[in-house]
Design a protein that fits this description.
CATH topology of the largest domain: Rossmann fold
Structural class: alpha/beta
Largest sheet: 7 strands, mixed
Number of helices: 9
Radius of gyration: 18 Å
Strand content: 25-35%
Number of strands: 16
CATH superfamily of the largest domain: Nucleotide-binding domain of ferredoxin-NADP reductase (FNR) module
């Protein structure tokens, strides 16, 4: 581990030495890591690449992400597999919007830079709960031609949501394509802005995932009435074909277990300190 940095409450950035991943990673892809031999496998978006290092950004929501946030600089991770998934569909579209919400902002600058590299004009839109939870703003501004910010409480940028900013963008100019990355409910709501306009829109899905190679089927999602596996068919899909209600139901399956595991982790820390 080259760097461990807290970006906001419960959100951490890690730079990991993983040459085999860094050499081949493209925007939109992810990796799967395992802390130790007894640990579960967790998928994380590849947020950036620098030499032999890859960056991941995550929120602590359960025991494994909690433990991951505690690994010190110079520490080790048992396994890293990647890059996995299909990369972002890069081509010259024209004017594109890259919309990131919450921790989903982690993958936005990588995609924005790749789109600009293809000659596109890129508009960045970032949404967060409040100013302290907004991440990578400066990096996104450097990656885009224009960048707009919204926070739920109005402490940074416009008061409101990413969807509100997207409505303002499409009201003023023609948009050829959009990428939305964030919580499932945010992607569902925001993609409805582009649907009536027929704007090609992609979302990066984050269903429950185990092996990351299409074998277990746990990451199945309904897209256009057909079952797709996010790990090998995605993670990016046509937003207007995704069954978000089904995805939201599956994402809620283990909320109680994650909460209980996190409580055990913190109780263990407190006990060790006494």
């Amino acid at each position: 581990m080259e760097e461990v940095l807290s970006l906001s409450e419960r959100v951490f950035q890690l730079w990991i030495h993983a040459p085999h991943v860094a050499r081949n990673a493209e925007a939109g892809q992810f990796l799967v890591l395992r802390i130790d031999e007894q640990g579960e496998r967790i998928p994380l978006t590849i947020s950036a690449v620098k030499g032999d290092l890859v960056r991941v950004i995550f929120m602590t929501v359960g025991k494994t992400t909690g433990r991951l946030s505690m690994i010190p600089e110079g520490g080790e991770i048992r396994d890293i597999v990647g890059p996995l998934g299909r990369p972002t569909a890069l081509q010259t579209y024209g004017t594109c919007a890259v919309i990131g919400g919450g921790v989903g902002i982690a993958g936005a600058p990588f995609i924005a830079r790749a789109l600009r590299g293809k000659g596109n004009r890129v508009i960045g839109i970032l949404g967060a709960r409040s100013a302290p939870f907004l991440i990578l703003e400066d990096e996104m501004r450097g990656a885009c031609d224009e960048t707009f910010v919204a926070t739920d409480d109005g402490t940074k940028g416009q008061k409101g949501f990413a969807a509100d900013l997207l409505r303002a963008v499409v009201a003023r100019e023609h948009l050829d394509a959009a990428w939305i990355i964030g919580p499932a409910i945010m992607m569902k709501v925001t993609s409805e802005v582009t649907r009536p306009l027929g704007i090609r829109t992609f979302v990066s899905l984050n269903p429950i995932m185990v092996d990351g190679t299409g074998m277990c089927g746990s990451c199945r999602v309904n897209v256009g009435g057909k079952t797709r596996f996010a790990c090998v068919d995605g993670p990016e899909f046509d937003a207007h074909q995704v069954d978000f209600d089904g995805l939201l139901t599956r994402l809620r399956m283990y909320v109680d277990e994650e909460k209980e595991a996190m409580e055990h982790l913190h109780h263990g820390q407190c006990g060790a300190g006494r």
